[in-house]
Design brief:
The structure is a single chain. This protein has a single domain, classed as Porin, CATH 2.40.160. 3% of the residues lie in helices and 66% in strands. The chain is built from 1 helix and 18 strands. The protein has an 18-stranded antiparallel β-barrel. The protein is globular. The relative contact order is 0.12.
């Protein structure tokens, strides 16, 4: 299938155009826009291979990061980049490194015509239940999003928007549950925003993509998505954001993989007191079935919930709690498929403590538990992870 590729590094255009923009704008802010950071830590994992029978190991971690944020008149440039490496004492084959970044140019040609050009990348350790080998595989998952969007403020509170995007998900372990899709999309929409900050926006997106997992054989697809977004500042201390839509994906050469249905999420941010905050989200998603062999078909429905309270007893300390639950079920799977009747859930609970003994020095300790339950016996596992780390800011 021929690819009509959108360049994945859209923010490069922002930095190439930055000198021309700055020449016409005001002098930069006097505060230091750059912030460097470096960190080290140690982490113990009671089940590093995510198997029913546990193997424990301890990893040393090291990281270096850079943050930049500066405004020039109507333009704002921001970036946050961090590289981290993990080295295990006994299982060197599990060593891995990550590079995470978030970079954006919040551009504005006039107060009424503005938008964002951005790139986001997340890398993290991932577990895949491989139906072929009958074992859990631990790998590194990379998720990327590149976006270019423009908004024009029409008369009154009306807004028009349009944009292009490129999204990609890839796992180093084969047979990932979503078959590692990459999608190139265009979209357009309109919204209405009140002076209070409440807004409602409708969008329509059309995308073309393909699966890059080695089991998928480069199968291509088309998708259409229509959604409605709501932002509502309920009070000065409580806000709500929600999205509801419908996704339809079709596969010209593999119609058994077609699926459609409702998707959406709802997020609440509540500042309970000056020292206590609560963040919670509920989401429903649809993705492809990861195994695309001769009996391929169906799709995966995912429901996700998390709640994250934070308490700051003093200016120098913070306590973070988090509970997350994800349930995935394989739907419309044909008879004979290895995915027939498959379902699994993952529960994660953690507590963390941050202490800033001196300005620009941060010490963190954490304790977490993760458990996966599946009707595939080999896929069940439980692990406990605890560690301590320090960061120095320059």
């Amino acid at each position: 299938m021929k690819k009509h590729t959108i360049r994945p590094l859209l923010p490069i255009a922002a930095f190439l155009m930055a000198p021309a923009v700055m020449a016409q704008s005001q002098a930069p802010e006097t505060n230091n826009a750059f912030q460097l950071r470096a960190g080290v830590g140690v982490e113990h994992d009671s089940n590093v291979r995510r198997q029913p029978t546990a193997e424990a190991d301890t990893a040393a971690t090291a990281s270096v990061g850079l943050k930049f944020d500066r405004r020039y008149s109507l333009q704002r440039f921001r970036a946050d980049v961090e590289a981290t490496t993990y080295r295990y004492r006994n299982h060197s084959d599990l060593n891995y490194s990550t590079l995470n970044y978030n970079a954006a140019w919040d551009w504005s040609f006039t107060p009424k015509l503005h938008g964002t050009i951005s790139a986001d990348r997340k890398q993290y350790r991932d577990t895949t239940s491989d139906l072929v080998t009958g074992a859990n595989l631990v790998g590194r998952r990379t998720e990327r999003t590149e976006l270019a969007e423009g908004v024009y403020e029409l008369s009154g509170a009306w807004r028009a928007l349009a944009g292009v995007s490129h999204t990609a998900a890839k796992s180093t372990a084969p047979n990932s549950y979503d078959a590692s899709p990459t999608v190139r999309s265009t979209y357009a929409g309109a919204g209405y925003e009140l002076a209070s900050g409440t807004s409602i926006t409708g969008r329509f997106r059309h995308g073309n993509g393909e699966y890059t997992d080695i089991t998928a054989g480069g199968i291509g697809f088309h998708e259409n998505e229509a959604d409605l977004l709501v932002k509502w500042p309920i009070t000065a201390k409580t806000s709500f954001e929600g999205r509801v839509g419908r996704l339809q994906r079709s596969h010209p050469v593999a119609p058994g993989l077609d699926f459609s249905g409702f998707i959406g999420d709802a997020t609440v941010n509540w500042e309970i007191t000056g020292k206590t905050r609560l963040l919670a989200q509920l989401a429903h998603d649809l993705t492809a079935s990861g195994f695309t062999g001769a009996t391929a078909g169906g799709h995966v429905e995912s429901n996700r919930f998390f709640v994250q309270p934070t308490w700051k007893p003093t200016v120098q300390t913070a306590v973070n709690l988090r509970y997350e639950y994800v349930r995935r079920t394989w739907q419309d799977v044909p008879a004979g498929s290895l995915d027939l009747g498959r379902r699994e859930s993952v529960q994660k609970a953690s507590i963390g403590f941050d202490w800033e003994p001196r300005p620009k020095i941060l010490v963190s300790a954490s304790l977490g538990n993760e458990r996966q339950k599946s009707n595939l016996v080999f896929a069940n596992y439980r692990t406990t992870i605890y560690g301590i780390a320090g960061k120095l800011y320059f």
